[in-house]
Every structure is written in C-alpha cells, then in structure tokens.
Design a protein that fits this description.
The complex is a heterodimer. In chain A, α6 (184-199) links the parallel β7 (172-176) and β8 (203-207). The longest helix of chain A has 16 residues, at 184-199. Helix content of chain A is 31%, strand content 26%. Chain A is an alpha/beta fold. Chain B is globular, with a radius of gyration of 19 Å. By secondary structure, chain B is α/β, with parallel strands linked by helices. Chain B has helices spanning 57-64, 91-101, 109-112, 119-129, 135-148, 165-177, 195-212, 223-229, 247-252, 257-264; strands spanning 19-28, 31-41, 46-50, 72-77, 102-105, 183-187, 215-219, 232-237, 240-246. Chain B has ten helices and nine strands. In chain B, α4 packs across α5 (135-148), α4 (119-129) runs parallel beside α6 (165-177) and α5 (135-148) packs across α6. The chains are: A alpha/beta, B alpha/beta. Chain A binds chain B through residues 14-18, 35, 54, 58-61, 71-73, 76, 82-89, 92-93, 104-107, 115, 118-119, 130, 167, 169, 171, 193, 196-197, 199-202, 235, and chain B through 1-5, 7-13, 42, 45, 199-200, 202-203, 206, 210, 228, 231-232, 244-246, 248-249, 252-253, 255-257, 260-261, 264.
C-alpha cells in the first residue's frame, strides 16, 4: 500500500541572526503514514512537536531531510517543493488545524467558515448553508453566525477556526492542539468529525495536550525527546 | 460532506507563470534602484512585496506597469498576442497594453486620477482608450466597475477632489478593474487611510480576488496588509530581492537577517 507521507531524516533548526546563534529544534525524524492512519506526537512542552507540524506544512523551512508526499501521479518532496506547489496542495490536500484563529476584520463567522468552499467554486448559498451546519455542530450560537469573530471569546473563535479548517475534506491533516480550550460538547463534535475523516481515509498527525481525548483514534506515536542545546555558530 | 470525500491526485502547478521578469536592473544616476531582480507571479495568486523605503519595491511595480524601461532585463506576460520582451514595446503599444490588460492603484490618487473630472468619467476614460464609444455603454460599465469597488453609486458623478481618501482609492480601483485586467498592481493602496477605512478597502480587494481570481501584486511597507493579502512574499532591500517564500513562512521562519529584523520590528 502506498503511503501518504514518508518522512526521512527530517531536521530543523532556527538561525537567529540577531543572537548570532542557531537554535536546535529536532533532527533525524523518520516515519511513514498511510491513508486513514493517525499519528500522535508526544513529548514535554518546547520539545518541538508544533515545530515538526509546521515544518511538515512548510510554514518552517526544513534544514535537511525529505518529506515525501505521495499521490497517484507520483511523489513530491515537500521539503524542497516550489512555493506555488505548496500553496496549491494546501488549498486541496493538506490542512493545518490550530487553536488560533486568524480572524479578518469585518468578515462574518459563517463567511470565514465558508471561504474554503467558495475558493473551491462551491456556489455561495450552498457554501453558507454548509458553514452554518458546521457552526451549529460545534455549538456556536445562531446569533453569532453573522457576527465578526474578532470580538468572540477564545473558545468560540477556536470553533470557527476548526469548522473552517475541516469543512473542505483533505488527504492529510495536521492538528496542533485542536481540542485546547474547547468545551465538552465541541470537543465531542470534533472527535466525531475526526473519526469520520479517519474512516474516509484521511491521514492525520496530531499534537494534543490531553491525548486521552483522541485515544480511540491513535494508531501510532512518536516521542520527541529534543536536545535543546543552542550551538554557537559563526555568523 | 465526509461521505463525499474523494481522494484526488493533486495537479501541481503545470500552468506557467502569468508574469515573468528576469534580470531587471535600473540605475538613476549613481543610485541603483533595481539590481538584477527576477520575479514570477502565477495566475490567481497575490504576490506581496515588502521592504523599507528606497528598497526598490515601488520602482519594480512601475516596471511591471511599463512606466519605465530598465537598463537591462526581460519582462513577459503569458497573454495572447503579446511579443517577447515587453520592455521593447513602443510607447503606443505600452499604453494600449497597460490600459487593457494591467490595472494599477497608486498610493497617491493624484497619480491615478484626474481630480477635476467626475469619478465615473475617470473610469470611463479607461474604456475610451480601449475603443468603447457608446455613451450608454461607457456609463453602464463605469457604473458596474464602481459598484464592484463598493463605491457609493449616488456619488459617481462627484469629482475625486471632493471625495475622502478611501473613496478616491475606490475610484482608482474601479478604473483599474474596469477592463477586467489580467494583472492588478497595487502600490501602497491603503497607506495613509485610517484603520477602519483601510480594513474596508482590504475587504474589497479580498472579495475581488476571490470572485474574479485577479492576479495581484501588492507593494506595502505595512506587514499587516501583506499578511492579510499575500499568498507569497518577496522581501527587497537596496534594489535586490533578499528572500522570497510563502507568506506564513516569511513571517514565521524568516531566513535572511534583514527579514528577521523586519518581521521582529512589527508591533
């Protein structure tokens, strides 16, 4: 069976020019992920779990290694792929779910959620209807649907963000503490959705503050140990 | 929705870039404004250009609008009926090309508008250059473009000089999009507007981008504007491109010392 993702010797460090220092994040990460598999990243705070997710998504540039993303057409190394290709994959194949919402001023909650569908050319009315279904499922009150999420509480913003991130099915989902600060109802709704996605063949990699939340979904785990020793380098 | 999930094969970017600029250099006397700059913009994307004053970002945008000819360099747009290097076009051909295929919005509305003509007249002027002669059609299309730019139509005959800064930018935008250009260039389009007006203009641009899939290049020293608008970002310093990448990568993991300084300086 062809994997969705194959990570080989992935390494990341940050060159901090103003400190004249290189900050080590991780190296030698290896794993393979198949369709419908759920990989949990474990380890204490600051060990590089979120950094790994962001590197896979290419918000961070890897220092070395490969991130082979497999398609029926062949494979592409996300570590070095062109920015335009990454942008395209993010629109259609690879999703990133965080606890933080990047809300735009004066855009209503339902429009933020519907946007990925609109970009995929779903007609406006249909996209809005689907967005409302998701907001309802996560327990966002109806009278907030037309309101601007910039004024919402942290938990409500997160629900908007999750709905937006999950509304368009992807092949690979990167989950960065998506359950943090959610109430019990929304957490249950999210886990139900993730279970559905897993059944539909979506591969997932996640960081969870309470891994117990998703215990039933986890297939494999990677424990990051992290040796956070900043090496001095000449700049 | 989940049931409808189909695992598609990604169709990676096989379409060529809409805009390709290669090795563009320009000196003004002793000042090097652009030093071997290359850029590509793909159909439907928004490229943001950032950098401090004097970095060459506006000069580059003017080059894209064929307002100046570089000392060296090649500029191509993947559009039908265009010759190779656009810098070799004569003045007339440039004017035609800019009027019909490229739209521009300047920071200073005085550069883009005739302040004492009516707003609708400013937009119609674009259409006249493109050969439209019927008064009804001119008025209708000007109205449509002003409406798409979210300009209050009851004021379409007001002169730009009588309008607020935000409204003047909307007239410029209407003029720029009236002929549905393939490329929209934005030079500090919201600089100098107050924050609430700025948010409204950015909303309009976002909506246009989504509904019409216009390819845009936006120059701004305001990183917030670039972050809101751009898919990819190019960082310029002293006439050179020091770094380019996906917008989130430039903001979260800048590589170049200058970009790190720039990103960390953001409030």
């Amino acid at each position: 069976m062809t994997p969705v993702l194959q990570v080989e010797n992935l390494a990341k460090h940050f060159q901090m020019h103003h400190l004249g220092q290189r900050l080590h994040a991780f190296d030698g990460i290896n794993f393979t992920l198949h369709a419908g598999e759920f990989l949990l990243l474990r380890g204490p705070n600051g060990v590089g779990k979120s950094t790994l997710l962001r590197t896979l998504y290419r918000s961070y540039l890897p220092r070395a290694g490969h991130i082979w993303y497999h398609t029926t057409e062949g494979r592409i190394d996300l570590a070095v792929a062109a920015d335009v290709d990454i942008a395209l994959l993010r629109r259609r194949e690879i999703g990133f779910v965080t606890q933080f919402l990047i809300a735009r001023p004066r855009v209503a909650a339902e429009d933020i959620v519907a946007e990925p569908l609109r970009r995929a050319s779903v007609p406006a009315a249909e996209a809005t209807e689907e967005a409302r279904r998701w907001l309802a499922e996560f327990g966002v009150k109806r009278d907030l649907w037309r309101a601007y999420p910039t004024s919402f509480s942290g938990g409500e913003q997160q629900k908007v963000n999750l709905a937006r991130a999950l509304i368009l099915p992807q092949r690979l989902l990167l989950l960065d503490e998506p359950t943090a600060s959610l109430d019990a109802g929304a957490r249950a709704a999210l886990i139900r959705r993730l279970a559905d996605l897993k059944l539909a063949g979506v591969a997932m990699i996640g960081v969870f503050h309470h891994p117990g939340d998703v215990a039933g979904l986890i297939d494999r785990e990677i424990e990051l140990t992290g040796q956070e020793v900043p090496e001095d380098v000449a700049v | 929705m989940t049931a409808a999930l189909a695992l598609r094969a990604p169709q990676l970017m096989t379409t060529p870039p809409l805009l390709t600029m290669t090795g563009v250099s320009r000196r003004y006397g002793d000042v090097v404004a652009l030093d071997d700059v290359s850029a590509m913009v793909y159909p439907g994307e928004v490229l943001g250009i950032v950098g401090e004053s004097g970095s060459g970002k506006s000069t580059l945008l003017r080059m894209m609008n064929l307002e100046d000819t570089p000392d060296a360099g090649d500029y191509r747009l993947a559009l039908p009926d265009l010759p190779g290097n656009l810098f070799e076009l004569d003045r007339f051909a440039r004017r035609m090309l800019c009027a019909t295929r490229i739209g521009i919005v300047y920071q200073n509305p005085h550069l883009g508008l005739l302040m004492k003509n009516s707003s609708s007249g400013n937009v119609a002027e674009r259409l006249l250059i493109a050969g439209e002669r019927s008064f009804t059609a001119l008025r209708g299309r000007a109205r449509e473009a002003l409406d798409a730019s979210e300009f209050p139509l009851e004021r379409m005959d007001a002169r730009p000089i009588e309008l607020s800064g935000g409204m003047q930018q909307r007239v410029q935008l209407a003029k720029a999009i009236a002929l549905e250009p393939a490329l929209l260039l934005l030079d500090e389009p919201t600089t100098g507007l107050d924050v609430s007006v700025q948010a409204l203009v950015l909303d309009t641009l976002k909506r246009l981008q989504r509904d019409r899939a216009i390819t845009m290049v936006i120059v701004s020293h305001d990183l917030g504007v670039i972050r809101t608008m751009a898919d990819r970002v190019m960082v310029m310093r002293r006439g050179r491109v020091v770094e380019q990448g996906l917008a989130d990568q430039i903001f979260q993991d800048p590589q170049h010392a200058y970009t790190q300084q720039l990103v960390h300086a953001k409030l």
